[in-house]
Automatic annotation (TrEMBL):
PROSITE patterns: HTH_LUXR_2 (PS50043). This is Regulatory LuxR family protein. Pfam families: GerE (PF00196), TrmB (PF01978). The lineage of its organism: Bacteria, Bacillati, Actinomycetota, Actinomycetes, Propionibacteriales. It comes from Kribbella antiqua. GO terms for molecular function: DNA binding. Residues 223-288 form the HTH luxR-type domain. SMART domains: HTH_LUXR (SM00421). InterPro entries: Sig_transdc_resp-reg_C-effctor (IPR016032), TrmB-like (IPR051797), Tscrpt_reg_LuxR_C (IPR000792), Tscrpt_reg_TrmB_N (IPR002831), WH-like_DNA-bd_sf (IPR036388), WH_DNA-bd_sf (IPR036390).
Length: 291
């Protein structure tokens, strides 16, 4: 097992990543020559590196591959590993919560009408903070209350959804639908038209830890960052790209042509003196342009 094995990176993936570090912007054929592997084997492990966030593909042909900055890549892998552990524990806790529905710490709410009513009540009672993970009901924000919201990118299917999500964060594959009010009351979707309401408990503590991990991983969609070389629309596009969307998916969500997205991305790369999207996202984050 390689040095990254504890983070879910197999030894062959790590070997190819190290080859990329030695020769950035390599093609598949160059990597095949460097490693002595068949091109099909190189292609298989390149796809794995892309999925892990350890490499990115540059525009144009032949395709070239660039390694992620090791420190940033390892930190992201560690966060994902932590989130996976919390999620696994959460799965067992949710089953326990449903089994113990009559316990004072939790209550099962069934039916769309009852869920909507309880959600509205919980929001109106908020004093300081509401935390949200991909909640399906519309948020009517309470004045004076801080909101932190993470949307699953699949939820932003229409052009207007991205504008409505401004000030929130987006992430691929948010594992649960959750609202936590003032860190004392949680509403957790466990099935269609079934919500488990939680009071102070070890399960709620686990959900709060899961939220913080996902919040760190999510890409921000914020109008409040300093503009600098990027317009708000540029920052919005870059955040969607950082969350893993393709140009086609970004175009659909923003309601523009795919060529428009490609032109704007090239302008963003030039403005940030970056050669890859990953590098652009990293530099934008370092300058506070995506905060």
């Amino acid at each position: 097992m390689g040095r990254l094995g504890a983070l879910g990176v197999c030894s062959e993936d790590e070997q190819l990543y190290r080859a990329l570090l030695v020769r950035p912007e390599s093609t598949t054929s160059q990597l095949a020559a460097d490693t002595g592997w068949p091109a099909t084997r190189v292609g298989r492990h390149l796809r794995s590196l892309l999925a892990l966030g350890l490499a990115s593909r540059t525009p144009g042909r032949p395709a070239q591959y660039v390694p992620a900055v090791p420190e940033a890549a390892v930190e992201l892998l560690a966060l994902r590993k932590q989130a996976a552990i919390v999620e696994a524990r959460l799965g067992a806790s949710v089953l326990t919560a449903e089994f113990r529905a009559r316990n004072d710490a939790c209550n099962v709410i069934r039916g769309a009408s009852a869920i909507t009513q309880r959600f509205s009540q919980a929001q109106q009672c908020a004093q300081s903070e509401v935390l949200v993970l991909d909640w399906p009901l519309e948020l009517g924000r309470v004045p004076g209350v801080s909101y932190r919201v993470v949307h699953d990118m699949a939820s932003l299917a229409e052009p207007g959804d991205v504008a409505a999500a401004t000030g929130c964060r987006i992430l691929r594959d948010v594992p649960v639908q959750l609202v936590v009010v003032d860190r004392t009351t949680g509403l957790l979707h466990t099935a269609p038209e079934v919500v488990v309401e939680l009071g102070p408990s070890s399960l709620l503590d686990g959900l709060l830890r899961l939220f913080e991990l996902l919040w760190q991983q999510a890409a921000p969609l914020s109008p409040s960052a300093p503009e600098g070389p990027l317009s708000f629309e540029d920052r919005q596009l870059l955040a969607l790209a950082a969350a893993g969307l393709t140009d086609q998916a970004i175009a659909r969500r923003l309601g523009v042509a795919q060529r428009t997205v490609e032109r704007r991305m090239q302008r963003i790369l030039k403005a940030l003196d970056a050669t890859t999207r990953f590098q652009a996202g990293l530099r934008a984050g370092q300058r506070g342009l995506l905060v």
